[in-house]
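Lab notebook, bench 4. We co-purified these components, and the gel suggests they stay together. Before we commit to crystallization screens, I want a quick structural picture of the whole thing.
Request: model the full complex, all chains together.
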Amino acid sequence: MARTRSLIVTSEAFPLAKSGGLGDAVTGMASALSVAGTDVGILMPAYRGVLDRVVGLRHIAHLAGMPGGEATLVGALCPESGLPVYLLCNNALYDRENLYLDENGESYADNAVRYAALAHAAVRVATGLPNIRRPDILHAQDWHAGLVPLLVRAAGLRYVKTVFTVHNLAFQGVFPLSCARQLGVPDSYCTEDGIRFFDQLNFLKAGLRYADCITTVSKTYAREILTPEFGCGLDPLLRARAADLMAIPNGIDDTLWNPAHDRYLGHLSYSARNLTKKTRAKAALQKAFGLHVDQNAPLLAMGSRLTHQKMADVAAQALPDALQRHPTLQVAIIGRGDYQYERALEALASRYPGRCAVRIGYDESTAHRLHAGADMLLHGSRFEPFGLTPLYAMRYGTIPIGSRVGGLADTIIDPGGQEADRVMLAATGVLFDGDRAQDMSLAIDRALRLYRQPAVWCSMQRNGMACEFSWRAAVRPYLALYDSLVSATPRGQVPAPLIRPLPVPAYTRRANNGISVRTAY
Ligand code: ADP
Ligand code: GLC
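Here is the predicted assembly.
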C-alpha cells in the first residue's frame, strides 16, 4: 500500500520556530509519524533566520496572486529533526524580529495576511506543484492554519482530506470581516454558518467548521471545550461537530528531554538510577540564579509564559505568602508574558534576594536546566489543552504542582487529596482545584510536606521518571485517523457534506463577555 502523505501546516516547528508548546508538539508529532512510515512534511513560514538553519535548499515554485504579494516556496531539510520542511518565503511578511508580536508586544497588524498566505500555499501544494508530492492529508495546526480546511473546500479539492488540531482554543485569530477579500476568503464563507464570529472573521472557526476531522491534544480538554466555561464562544460549533472531534494526547520528545543525555546539562546529567546526582544540577541552578546554594532548601521552579492562562497572577499572589511561611523555600522563575505579571514577580525577587530569582526572557537551555535542578515545578493553569512542561519536569524527577484541568488532570497522578500522605507513594505530582491564591498556596504547602518525607518524595520522583509519554506511543491514533480518512474516500470521490448547516447559534446574539479572542501567542 502506498504510504500516506501528510503535509503539516503550522506556524511553529521546533527548533526552527518556537514560542511555546506548539513548536515542540508539531515536531514531535511529525517525527513520530515519519518513523511510523508516513510520508510527512512541514509547511511553515520562512521567518527571519530560518533559511540559514536548514540544509539542501531547493526551489519549488513562485506563487503569484497570494495574500501579501508574490511568494516563493522552497524545500529543505531540518538538520536537527531530519524532517522535510517547505518554507514559504515572503520577506515583507516574515522577515521580522518576532514570530507574532511587534516591539511593543502587540500582534503584527497584518497577521491575518501572514497566515492566510500560509493557508493558500498549502492549498497550492494540494492542487499540485512541480517538485513536491501532492499530500493525501493536510494537517492544519491551530488558528494560524485555520483557513486551510476552508480553502480546500472552496477550491473543491476532492482528493485531499483535512485534519485540524486545536492546541489552544483561546487563540482564535480574529480579524475584521472587511479583510476577507484581501485574504482570498470567498464572501459565501463569511456567514454565521461559516467563519463569521461576533461580526468578525475567525480563523480558528474556519478550521473547526470545515475540517474533515478535528483533534485536540488531551481527553479532558476535548470534553471541556464542549462547555461554555472552556469553549471560548465556540462550544456550540464544537458540540455540533462532536462526532468529528477526537482527543489525541500529545507525547514528548524523550530524547531531547532526557536527563541522562541532555546537551544543556553536560556533565550534570543523571538518571533515575543515580538520583543523588540531581543534586549537582540543583546546586548549578541555584548558583546560576543567584540563590543560596543549599541542598536542603526546597527549590520550586516556574518556567512558562507569564499569562492569565498560566495563573501568573495567582502565582504572584501566592508565592510571597509561601516564601514567608516556609523560611527555607526557594523560587526560580524563567518566563515572559504580560507586563504586569513580569513586574510583580520581579518585585518579589527583589524582596527575597538569595531565595527568589526571576529571569524575564525566553531561553531553551535555561528551561532544561530549570527542570533538571528544581525539586518541584509550579504550573498553575486556568485551562490547559495539554501542558508539556509538567511532563518534562516529571522526566527530570521534578515534581509538578499543577491545576486539575485539561491535560494536566490526565497526565499528573495525584491520588491524595484528604488521604494520608502514604497514598502519594503512587503519585507523580500534586494537583489542585481553583484559581485563588489560597488554592495554590495550599498545594505548595502539601508539596512541601511531601518533600520532607524522603521515601514518599523519592517514590514520586521515580514514578514520574518511569512514565511513558513518548511520541512513539502517542502518535498511533493519528496513524489510525489518517488511514481511516484516506481509505474512507477513494481518490476522486466527492466527499459528502460534513456537517449539517447550523442554525444561527445563540452565542452570536450574546455579548462577547469574557471570551478571549486573542490573535497571537
Ligand atoms: P504552552 O504551549 O501553553 O506555553 P506547554 O507547557 O505545553 O505550554 O509548552 C511550553 C513550552 O515552551 C515548553 O517547551 C517550555 O519549556 C517552553 N517555554 C515556555 N516559556 C519558556 C521560557 N521563558 N524559556 C524557555 N522555554 C520556555
Ligand atoms: C498549547 C497549549 C498547551 C499544549 C501545547 C502543545 O500551546 O497551551 O497546553 O501543551 O499547545 O499542544
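Residues 111-127 form the longest helix (17 residues). Worth comparing against the SEC data before the next meeting. Residues 5-18+28-251+473-493 form a domain with the Rossmann fold fold (CATH 3.40.50.2000).
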